Amino acid sequence: MPDSPLADSPYEVLGVASDADATELRLAYRRALRVAHPDTGGDPARFHAVQRAWVLVGTPAARAAFDRGNGGGAESTPATWAPAAPRPRRDSRPLARSYGHPGGLSRERYLGLIREWVGRGAPLDDPYDPALVRGAPRDIRHVLADALAEEATARSLSTLGIAYTIWHDLATDAAGHGLPPKLDHLVLGPTGLFAIQSEDWGGPVALKRGELVGEALAGERPIKALAARAKAIGRAAKVKPTALVVVVPDQYAAEPLELGGTYRGATIALVRSSRLASAVREGLPGSAHLGGTEVMEVRSRLQATVRFA
């Protein structure tokens, strides 16, 4: 799995230009390691990031591999953010019923933005080329990061089983604040009706007073936006979500599952990507479960009203 498009490159972690010579690179590594070392009051996470950066570019072979687009070192396969090819299943357990195209709209937006940034008429052989992506403005990389997050969530949710129904990339009439006003995922099952937003801001976030906070958010209010989108869909179908969930890459949430109170009866939660499927399968603490008849009724209403972005 390649790094997020929003992740700092090894050169950025070490604080040098990508064309720094070997001596500059070595001095920068030693300096960064000394500053970040936990024994001298540094940040352990930063210390590990510096060490990993050196693994990726610290030797001529590793650096050459990274610069060619290999994000995992000289011996790993090349990093790519292109859509993954379908993989054959290794078990016969029924999957959750799924509708829509997770990450599809975000990928379309990314392709449009990256082509516009490169320039009209300019050749663009591979819009997912790692060197191209890393050089793009942050807002463009953010769109791609969100597409990858949505696809990862869809893979996780598909394992829930036949008792669950999932809709991806739902269109809503909620205010989009310049972004497509869509809901990434809606999950229905015996443990409730979950409105889920998959996000990757490239930095840590946490819940505070029912809203997400963190430097990487740059003023966004994700829970408020999620609630508005869920309300718009619920109003059309005459149903109410039992949970509002934001799912982020594991490294950006301090806890696997963090609760943030309720909003109009729906439990608010911030969930690590690796914890999402089990959180939905178990149900969130304080969130209402649904009976079999109720699940069927809600599913029928949603199937009759859901539109895809």
Automatic annotation (TrEMBL):
<dbReference type="InterPro" id="IPR001623">
    <property type="entry name" value="DnaJ_domain"/>
</dbReference>
<feature type="domain" description="J">
    <location>
        <begin position="9"/>
        <end position="70"/>
    </location>
</feature>
<feature type="region of interest" description="Disordered">
    <location>
        <begin position="66"/>
        <end position="101"/>
    </location>
</feature>
<dbReference type="InterPro" id="IPR011528">
    <property type="entry name" value="NERD"/>
</dbReference>
<dbReference type="Pfam" id="PF00226">
    <property type="entry name" value="DnaJ"/>
</dbReference>
<feature type="domain" description="NERD">
    <location>
        <begin position="145"/>
        <end position="256"/>
    </location>
</feature>
<dbReference type="InterPro" id="IPR036869">
    <property type="entry name" value="J_dom_sf"/>
</dbReference>
<protein>
    <submittedName>
        <fullName>DnaJ domain-containing protein</fullName>
    </submittedName>
</protein>
